[in-house]
Amino acid sequence: MSEPDVGEIERREIQDHVRKVLRDLGNPEPPLSLPDVRKLLHLDLKYYDGSDAGLLAEVSHRVKLLTKKTLPDAVKHVRDVIARSKLLAFWVPESKRVLIDSSVPKPKHRWIEGHEITHSIAPWHRDFLLGDDKETLDPSCRAMLEAEANFGAGQLLFLQDRFANEARDVAPSIESVKALASRYNNSITSTLWRLVEERDPSKPVFGMISVHPNDPNIGAHDGASPWRYFIRSGAFRTQFSNVKPAEVYRLVAHHASYRKRGPVLETHDFLTDIAGEAWEFTIEGFSNSHALLTLGCALRKRSTIVVAPR
Prior knowledge:
35% of the residues are buried. The chain has 310 residues and is of the alpha+beta class. A 5-stranded antiparallel beta sheet has the order 5-4-8-7-6, sandwiched between helices. Strands 1-3-2 form a 3-stranded mixed beta sheet, sandwiched between helices. It is globular. The chain has helices at 8-24, 34-41, 53-67, 71-85, 109-121, 134-137, 139-157, 161-167, 174-184, 188-198, 234-239, 245-255, and strands spanning 44-48, 89-92, 97-101, 205-210, 227-232, 262-272, 278-287, 292-301.
């Protein structure tokens, strides 16, 4: 899927809140210490499982206050939301607590925590989460809140402009993604996402998180499409708005090897922009055994390619 675009006003406000947090922490070097962030914001972190009676009581009380439901109805509502949305974490404003599902693999905890911290510092998120009025339950509204929280997590965990500046000092490649992931102590997936969106928004670049075309167990997920996320730089969104994720995945499937871990593809291929001009892209794919991560970077328009005489 492609996340909805976060509005410019919301982007600036989230950036301002994250900037204040980082400033109050003394503008730290990477990697960011999340315990230091929690301490600054007076947040508590707790892990839970779906049958946790304490979780149900705490979150149901929040819903009861928001929606004027009776407590039994609030408990039922929370159970339904967890089951329907497959929520992996909550932020509970009254207790200033971040709750993370203990079944979530540990490598994902850092991103999820950054996501929930953003919910806590974006003032307009407070009264939307887990309520049940029509606006709150509208899927597009919920998707936008989640996109805003993901934007804030990226701003926080990658220290805002610090990551973009460092990323511009290296080539846009899977090797650079892995090196930056290690430096910032973030996952390869989240680092790929940030590199595509933040390194140079003026260059057409895309990323894709998908199943492995030759081993669908790698990257398997609940969606109907073989890709989970399609990530685009600002220039790609504008110049290649006609390019859908299915087209990119076809390129991935065409070039992918049968290797289950490590480099899966490294090639050049072409995509056509909205003006009908073909562009050459370098395309790399890497399997971390959990998903296939693909990075594509525009090189040049096809019309400018010089073919050496034979």
